[in-house]
Amino acid sequence: MGRKLLLDKAHIEGIRYYDVYRKNGGYAAAEKALKSMTTDQVLDEVKKSGLRGRGGAGFPTGLKWSFIAKPEGVPRYLVCNADESEPGTFKDRYLMEFLPHLLIEGLLISSYTLGANSTYIYIRGEYAWIPDILEEAIAEAKKNGWLGKNIRGTGFDLEIYVQRGGGAYICGEETALIESLEGKRGNPRLKPPFPAVKVCGSRLPW
What we know:
Layout: H1 2-7, H2 18-23, H3 28-36, H4 39-49, H5 61-66, E1 77-82, H6 91-98, H7 100-114, E2 118-123, H8 130-143, E3 159-164, H9 174-181
Parallel strand pairs: 1-2, 2-3
């Protein structure tokens, strides 16, 4: 079922481009979330959906989102782990290569719900051609009002950045990925604290 939902439009010619994606229902979910739902309502929908992580543990996504600390005045960042270093896996590559706007729309809804105004796609270095596809899609989304300041008049701001990884397998682990994203050597951090609560007092350089 998950595969059908994610890839049911992958066969459509030109679906990686904004105009085709939009004509086939693209950004409708983001529009509904940003214009007619509160962040708590979106979170409740994710919980009710039964959506789970695909990393092996199958942890409920809505429950994981509810763990995010929300101290006032403290910026929050969303990081998309597209390192995908496991041998023989390519689910992330397939989505980014053929349905980049689907990823962007998902990140937009997620960022809105979690209160993040800066989002990063950390992609494995071996996917040398994928960042260009993502950057093009991000530019299209921004041109059409889905990224940047005051998205679609909703008052929500979001920028998405693509960061190429260095090809280290360990950077698939969340804290090692954050270290690498900050320009450091990709070594895991001691936990707790967990990234959803506090990133050890560090700050992303952008």
